[in-house]
Design goal:
- By secondary structure, this protein is α/β, with parallel strands linked by helices.
- It contains 4 helices and 5 strands, in the order ββαβαβαβα.
- It has helices at about 25-40, 60-75, 90-100, 110-120, and strands at about 5-10, 15-25, 50-55, 80-85, 105.
- Helix 2 crosses helix 3.
Length: about 120
């Protein structure tokens, strides 16, 4: 994780990209995230689901949210569905804005998110 701010992992057995976000992001952190995300997803050769854990994420600046919206648009064709883990109302609102138009659900725990991803894998 970049200074405890983000972690990106690929789970090929479940074709799931797991992203954990935390803290408040500077422009430098966002740039590191974009670079690391491209490195990880550059090796993926199939469509995939995403678990996005925002439980340790702070409310972000407008520029950071806009950056996440751009990433989502660029990767829309690759993503089957997204499970977001988190409970903060404002961070959930920011996440909804950044990922609208994708099949997305919010969950209080990662275990519940993983269950939904596993159940829905046969639906694709």
């Amino acid at each position: 994780m970049d200074e405890g701010i983000f972690d990106i992992g690929w789970e090929p057995a479940t074709t799931t990209l797991v992203i954990r976000l935390g803290g408040f992001w500077t422009e430098e952190i966002y740039e590191n995230y974009v670079r690391d995300l491209a490195r990880v997803t550059g090796t993926i050769r199939c469509r995939y689901s995403v678990i996005l854990d925002i439980t340790k994420s702070a409310v972000q600046t407008q520029a950071t949210i806009a950056g996440h919206e751009k990433i989502k648009e660029e990767r829309r064709a690759e993503i089957i569905r997204m499970a977001i883990v988190g409970s903060g109302a404002i961070t959930q609102m920011q996440a909804k804005r950044a990922i609208h138009n994708l099949e997305t659900r919010f969950f209080p725990t990662e275990a519940e998110a993983r269950e939904w991803i596993a159940q829905s894998q046969g639906d694709v």
